[in-house]
């Protein structure tokens, strides 16, 4: 028997979860409604920078979980592709290097990050945990440190 690629198997598992109400009674199906909430839809970053075109090449989506301890600053860096983060817990302040503009995001908020614009994130007294989705291409770095800065992760 030919083995299916792992990606196909994961999709099949998700399908079973979504369609899991098939064996439920009508009463239980009425109680188990699917709910959705659009958390972010935009054409620009948090600082107003408009997004340009997506990178050229074979598309590659990446999803990262990032944990940042309290009183920690990430190094100055850029992202070469559009990405969005969701703050699972804590607080994170994002700072634009050129303008000095900052914005503090809290748990439950989405962060539309800038592209090719130097910035950093930092925590104060509370740790932050994020899920970050990147829309890049194969072989592309997710983050690029500024000269003299260490890698972000």
Q: What is the N-to-C succession of helices and strands? A: HHEEEEEEEE
**Quaternary organisation:** single chain
Radius of gyration of CA atoms, rounded to a whole number = 19 Å
Q: Indicate the overall shape.
A: globular
pLDDT under 50 segments (min length 5)?
1-19
Report the sheet with the most strands, covering strand number, pairing sense and barrel closure. Answer: 6 strands, antiparallel
How many beta strands in the DSSP annotation? 8
Give the DSSP E fraction (strand runs of 2 or more residues): 25-35%
Q: What is the average of the pLDDT values?
A: 87
Helix fraction bin: 10-25%
Judged by helices, strands and strand pairing, the structural class is: mainly beta
How would you characterize this protein structure?
The chain has 153 residues and is mainly β. Helix content is 12%, strand content 33%. The protein has a domain at 59-145: Jelly Rolls (Sandwich), CATH 2.60.120. It has helices at 6-18, 26-31, and strands at 59-68, 77-78, 83-96, 102-106, 110-112, 119-122, 128-137, 144-145. The protein has 2 helices and 8 strands. The model is unreliable at 1-19 (pLDDT under 50). It is globular and about 60 Å long. 15% of the residues are buried. The strands form 2 sheets. Strands 1, 3, 4, 5, 6 and 7 form a 6-stranded antiparallel beta sheet that branches. Strands 2-8 form a two-stranded antiparallel ribbon.
């Amino acid at each position: 028997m030919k083995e299916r690629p792992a990606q196909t198997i994961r999709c099949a598992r998700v399908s079973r979860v979504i369609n899991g109400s098939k064996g439920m009674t009508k009463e239980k199906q009425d109680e188990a409604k699917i709910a959705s909430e659009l958390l972010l839809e935009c054409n620009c970053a948090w600082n107003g920078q408009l997004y340009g075109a997506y990178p050229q090449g074979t598309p590659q989506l990446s999803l990262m979980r990032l944990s940042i301890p309290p009183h920690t600053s990430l190094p100055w860096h850029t992202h070469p592709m559009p990405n969005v983060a969701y703050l699972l817990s804590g607080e994170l302040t994002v700072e634009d290097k050129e303008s000095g503009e900052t914005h503090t995001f809290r748990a439950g908020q989405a962060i539309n990050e800038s592209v090719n614009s130097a910035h950093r994130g930092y925590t104060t007294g509370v740790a932050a945990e994020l899920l970050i989705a990147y829309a890049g291409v194969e072989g592309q770095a997710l983050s690029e440190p500024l000269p003299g800065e260490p890698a972000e992760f």
